[in-house]
Amino acid sequence: xxxxxxxxxxxxxxxxxxxxxxxxxxxxxxxxxxxxxxxxxxxxxxxxxxxxxxxxxxxxxxxxxxxxxxxxxxxxxxxxxxxxxxxxxxxxxxxxxxxxxxxxxxxxxxxxxxxxxxxxxxxxxxxxxxxxxxxxxxxxxxxxxxxxxxxxxxxxxxxxxxxxxxxxxxxxxxxxxxxxxxxxxxxxxxxxxxxxxxxxxxxxxxxxxxxxxxxxxxxxxxxxxxxxxxxxxxxxxxxxxxxxxxxxxxxxxxxxxxxxxxxxxxxxxxxxxxxxxxxxxxxxxxxxxxxxxxxxxxxxxxxxxxxxxxxxxxxxxxxxxxxxxxxxxxxxxxxxxxxxxxxxxxxxxxxxxxxxxxxxxxxxxxxxxxxxxxxxxxxxxxxxxxxxxxxxxxxxxxxxxxxxxxxxxxxxxxxxxxxxxxxxxxxxxxxxxxxxxxxxx
Amino acid sequence: xxxxxxxxxxxxxxxxxxxxxxxxxxxxxxxxxxxxxxxxxxxxxxxxxxxxxxxxxxxxxxxxxxxxxxxxxxxxxxxxxxxxxxxxxxxxxxxxxxxxxxxxxxxxxxxxxxxxxxxxxxxxxxxxxxxxxxxxxxxxxxxxxxxxxxxxxxxxxxxxxxxxxxxxxxxxxxxxxxxxxxxxxxxxxxxxxxxxxxxxxxxxxxxxxxxxxxxxxxxxxxxxxxxxxxxxxxxxxxxxxxxxxxxxxxxxxxxxxxxxxxxxxxxxxxxxx
Lengths: 441, 273
What we know:
Chain A is of the alpha/beta class. Chain B: Keywords: Membrane, Transmembrane, Transmembrane helix.
């Protein structure tokens, strides 16, 4: 053992010395890192000297691969293979910068072993960042994944972290930017996704055919959709912030489609096209979310037996749209556009808040009329449409005041500029009025 | 050119002494302030509930103000005999109409500027108010809306024989363009074959300045995705720098056409006199 690690050390020293000599030795260096890995004993820890190594590498026995000390250990991959393939169980790879910019089918990191730990990696990829296939109980933490290739359409990009048939994974505190789906989980149960930041991607967190997924305290910004829960059961989406998903015509903060027994609670959904989008989903609980400044607060389509309560709706252009969703327990939410009457002083309005299905129904049949969204004439027409009111989605007891005293005012950049502009306009127009009157007399 | 200047200066003099101008100023300022107070805890930024409310209330008020001020000014000339007097001067109809238009725009824009100035300043003092780019966009919206409907008002004032007729037509135009527009389009186009609907809605939108200005502003405020996948290209296009240029172009063509039609009608009337 001692001999072996000394040997490793020697090789690495040699490697480090050879590094600046450039391209000609790339093949040799790559061979060297792979040789080091091949010659290591299972369970060994390999400390890498700072420097640039060439991929691809394959790890087929339990190892720990990490930088010897703080500093840049770069793994560069120019091949069409994965930069790192891990087929062994209980392998840890930490602290590497992986540069794998070729646009290709194979992912940057491919994991097929159980209980693999990926920690503090910085990945620049032109493919999928981390792909896990048929492997359980791994961890991805403090890892940054960025899309590196220029001029690739979003639909053709790879996913940040992509799980298939991989159960009980934990993904904590990662940062993922400019990819297709930030974290994609298919047929992978009981994953825990928490504290991740996902930006400018298609979907932030995307569940397909999963069960028991926990999505907590993540932040999603400027994606097409923040969290997408499709054909899933018992998912929990709590304490996340999804903001500014508004650029795309299909943008949402949180989307539930064919989702059942899922909990969506304590999330902040701000400035999206649709805050919460719920379609063909049953038995879910949507509680205590702050849904603010979206174009549409909540959209309910053909969804039943959901409990929607104690949510706050602020500053949305349209608070809610609903169609074919009668049997939901909708009560005790705060809607800022609604003025209730509270005769008995219990803090809940005695008149209910009904969601007019007219616009939703019409635009479903004829999408061209979407152009009238919230136009004055449309608001007028919706007011006239009152048929079958008992079948509308209705908040039976809306709150009179927001549960925690309201919304904190956001950063006011440029408020003073507006003030100055206001005074200038006011001054000029007043002067004009004054002078024109004087001149007349 | 000096004829236009003369008519415009005269129109401004009359306009700023017109009690209507002051009641409209008071109404508009009051309404801007009350919106500000309703939205007291919030901060108006981008396309949100408060900016949408503001858009809609401006859509109710400004076209009506523009239509009434403009058409009353023209029919007033007819009723009070000023036009007969002016006809004896070497003054062209074109100079008369454009001068009127310019003078009335000055009055109307002063009203808008006063209302916006008051709410911008008050919002700042109250510690809420507007994000500066949203404020600018709403101001541009109100100015465009006023100019568009002042163009329509010149036409209404030409057609109407007296103030009562002008009032009737003005309210009719306003109701049609602002309130009844979606209802009429949905009813009329609902019977059409499906593929025709979108082109028809698109073409008709260019005829209705209220709708055109509203959509332009919604997209510029970042709310384009509310229009749905059908209008994705519009959204991209309006947001590009070309969007503003083309909108300005459409506005000028629209107002120019309204004035040209008014001109030809006025000329025909002159021939008969």
